[in-house]
Amino acid sequence: MGLFQSKKKPTGRPVQVLEFKNTIIILILGATGTGKSTFANLILGDGRKNEHVPVSQSSLDSCTKDLHLVKLELPVEYNRLHNAGLNTIVLVDTPGFDNADESLTDNKIMGLISAMLEKSRRLQVGRPAPLRAGVIWVCDIFSPRGVEEEKKSIGLLTGRQTTGWGADVSERMVFTTTKWEKLKVQSDGCTAQTDLDNGLKETVGGRPWVRLNPADHEAAWEVVHTILDDLDKSLE
């Protein structure tokens, strides 16, 4: 039985305003074209297709131009998180790094995220910093940008570990690889995953990898549960 199958399926609705009280924030980050919006849609599932995020067909152009937020109920089995007053998850789909839009620079994207997280921190009534948050970093298994470019993008976040919110979110950071379904031979993906593991070893720093394979609702939730499990355990 898979991890998702042992969890109770959450429900919810889209965030209409920045409602961050009693909320766990999970950022979906990565380069343009890696499948961040597709990941968000897999989390929503077929039952919430009307809320799906537009998906880019280009590896250079980011279809997401702003932060796209979706609110989900926190699964009931996370007792410690619920007891701490945390009832919901806000999943944040972000514009892709290293995209072709000159007005949407990497620093601009980080600025959008900073503003959102600082607003969230102010609304955590009764629960001062640190934020209850995490990051899902999405990597294309084909790694078309190369390991060095991937390191540069990851450094945009990990380099903020001493500047407030960077430490809060990067403490719980999980990496996932996408596009396994495009491989003709699955063993090629295993080789590519090993290459990514080795190339990013120092940058990732022991943080977990969870393969999005197959690319479906259950596999996407396995990635999210990695963060939720760690957050819940931290309250023991």
Automatic annotation (TrEMBL):
Name the InterPro entries for this protein.
Answer: GTP-bd, P-loop_NTPase
Report which superkingdom the organism of origin falls in.
Answer: Eukaryota
User: Gene3D superfamilies in the record, alphabetically?
Assistant: P-loop containing nucleotide triphosphate hydrolases (3.40.50.300)
Pfam family example for this protein? MMR_HSR1
Q: Give the G domain ranges.
A: 26-104
Q: Which residues form a coiled coil?
A: none
- Molecular function in Gene Ontology: GTP binding
List the protein's name: G domain-containing protein
Whose protein is this, by species? Coprinopsis cinerea (strain Okayama-7 / 130 / ATCC MYA-4618 / FGSC 9003)
